[in-house]
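Section 5.1 Outputs to date
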Amino acid sequence: SSHFGGWQDSAQHSVPMAPQMSKVAAAAAAVAGTAFVALPSQGTRSSAPSSGSLRGARGSSGSALGSAPTIAVLGATAVAAAALRKKDSQAVKATALQAFENELGVQAPLGFWDPAGLSSDGDAKEFYRRRVVEIKHGRVSMLACTGYIVQEFFRFPGYISPSSEIKFADIPNGLAAATKVPAVGWFQYTVFCGICDLWLMHQVPTNPPGKLCTRLFGEETTNYEYGFLGLPGYLGGKAIADPEVKKKKLNAEIANGRLAMMAIIGMFFQDGLTGSAWGDWANYTESPLRAFENELGVQAPVGYFDPMGLSKDGDVETFRRRREAELKNGRVAMFATIGYMVPEYFKFPGYLAPSSNLKFADVPNGIAAITKVPAEGWLQWVALCGCYEFCVNTPVDPAEPGNYGKGKLGYGNMVLGITAEPMQDAEARKRALNSELANGRLAMMAIVGLWVQDGLFGTPYGLYTGSNAFETELGVQPPVGFWDPLGFTKTDDVASFRRRRYVELKHGRVAMFACLGYIVPEYYRWPGDLSPSLGLKFSDVPTGFAAFSKVPLSGWAQMVAFAGTVELFQYVDDPKRPPGDFENAGFLGVPNSYIKAPAGTKEKKLAAEIANGRLAMMAIIGMFYQDGLTGSAWGDWANYTDSPLRAFENETGVQPPVGFWDPLGLSVSGNVSDYKRRREVELKHGRVAMFATIGYILPEYWRFPGYLSKFLDIKFSEVPNGLSAFSKVPALGWLQIVGFAGIVELNVYNEQVNDEPGNYGAGFLGLRSIGFMNAGIADPEVRKKKLNAELANGRLAMFAIIGMFFQDGLTGSAWGDWANYTDSPLRAFEGELGVQAPVGFWDPLGLSADGDIDTFKRRRAVELKHGRICMLACIGYIVPEYFRWPGYLSPEKGIKFADMPHGIAAIGKVPLEGWVQIVLFLGHYEGYFWRQDPKRAPGDYEGYGFLGAGKNFIFNFDPILFQDPEVRKTKLAAELANGRLAMVALMAMLFQNGTVGTTGPAMWLPSA
């Protein structure tokens, strides 16, 4: 018993160091303890047994250890204890990660992410250490990325090593610098990093990760902490007091550091593989992926795409196996996508399973059908697929994945016994398989999308009826509404949403200024010197990218300091105000501006600013591209001589006014056969669309006599026009249509003449394809013109048929009156100002789809203002041809009105003071005179009458007022119509002026 008691004491002392044991485990331990202590018999003194007696006890049949029941109990208790320990261990591992879910660095959209399970032990110290290391690595990587970029535009002057006569300009960028920097330089780097890590940037364990201080001798007298942006305390750096703000800043630094770590690794790879820090991947000639660049499925615009590196081993057999599997999956996905659509319009008559009394009409569409189809049906499908996989689809040549010798579209040797002639032309076969691959890839994406939509909304074509916490927040505007394709807001974190929103505002403001900075220097430059010490004038600095290398280092330092001051001290977010509404900034975010948004309009102004900023961000990216590719901020695309699209500038279909147009870059590979195939497909689609458009129009005036289906007693006159005909035409009719189209596709339009896309030798309008003999058009120029005209008409027809589909679907009739579209939210504005014949209410972009009256009236007022300005601008283009003001525009500069050129050329001639006067004049009208009263019609300002003219401190005459509200509405409507015409006219004048280069007779009469 003393041994047992001693074990108990030991166990009790060990309890705090291990997970709490259950009562069952404790009991099992107690029973197991008896196995090591033989119970004394009656009359025997209880004493500790000797080692010899224990050895004898082990050999005795009557001992506790040797008894069978005791062994059984021992085994059972050991198993129970082990199972409980395992369960407790799994529970600890499952919950260990929860300890770090609110730690620094856990951010949306990933949240806590530890795929390698480094934190599975729940050790807080290890987690803290790893977070500190991550922040350090991120900071180093951000500096490294900056070091890769800056050297492309700026190098320090002078010598990096005077003793070795090595200049900074001699050091190459990237990895090549490793062998150029002398050993002493590397030694300095190492010493500097070591000093920083050991003494200057010390992490105190009680501080948050990333909050550093010094670790020097002298303790508090010499040591200091670092403030915001790493400024030391003795230089005025102050730590961020608010813990939430501090955490946000460190989180942002962690996120940027993670991005920088990925970026620097990518730069290292690109540098190492291509031989240059910004090298072209075409220089990576040793890539194992080059083996597959000409294989089936490598198509523009992506080219060879293997982001997971599945083909990096260069194994041709494995590559072809995967390609074949991709083709098969694509074929299945195409059938599956069709299978999602067809049941919406047609279902087989009769029974799917007569024994189960299950009709085809009873089977729902989409995922819901899985549980409805009986087991025998699934077995039949599996058997059919297995038959195709193992018996039918036998490869003809292993070098051609997907070619099973079954002819075009692979419809030969099907279950129905159809045979097909294999495609003999190797190039045609490759093109067809490439097309099938592309369509299969699209179908795989489509079927996944249909499944997700079906699973989320409960129907294959269901609409999202849920909501989001941010649907009413600032920046959510029509026509897109709330748009978050990357799911940044799926956590419903209001603080993160707010931060992203005001960051978007800042970026938009910068982009708007950048766009202005691209445009203004084309017409105006500041006088004087940009840098007197360097003798650099503003007029010497080019616009666009070329200015990077021209502006001196001190100028960049000033820009960075200015932007930093605004960011840190002016644009300070206040949670009590809307995002982007900073206390120290006025209208449009101008620092210290006295111009404030009127009460009640602040959020509208910010929303408008967000929209304009988004447009500006897109615009500045476009300007960067144009500048980089053409060598000039407003460079002519004709200067982009390296464009692969030049190969197609004289091909069929390239016509004015657009010329060669390929916004998706489908032709960037310069592959002529791909280009011609797409052109051929476009012609075919255009021809089908032209017939479809005629088919929408003709039945309104004429129908075939007799029966469409005598067997079903359906006459042609009974088939409705448009989409309603889908469900009326019997299945055999659709089969005939598909069969006819297939015959034309495979047997008539199967060989091009003279390698001209769309020329199948079928003559004008393809008459030979429907039985009319036609020799075709012999003159190649006339033939090209005809094909070009057909392309243009086909493009128009494709748009037309889509419009007809929409009109038919929304109004219930092929030529339905839009008045039948009773669900339209636009009905709220049909009686508003500006809704006039012949167009009526016209809103093609759906800006008024939300039915917001206030927003509609604001846009109408803005339209009136723009129209008034454009009417004046049009007059300003015309009047100077006949009359100029006498005297001086600027007496100080000796500029007469008669000296001013007309049109666009005047922009660079008007002095800066003149532009300031124009801006102030417009600002007074916009901000003070033309104040919209919600009780009055848009554009009807109190005290201002006809054409918006009225008495104020600028003009002193009485306005022409209309007391009759109907007359006033008529005048405003007329003004709107004239303003719309003036906006279009002014744009045409600006284009004509910019293109012709004059405002004289040649602008109005080119023959002059």
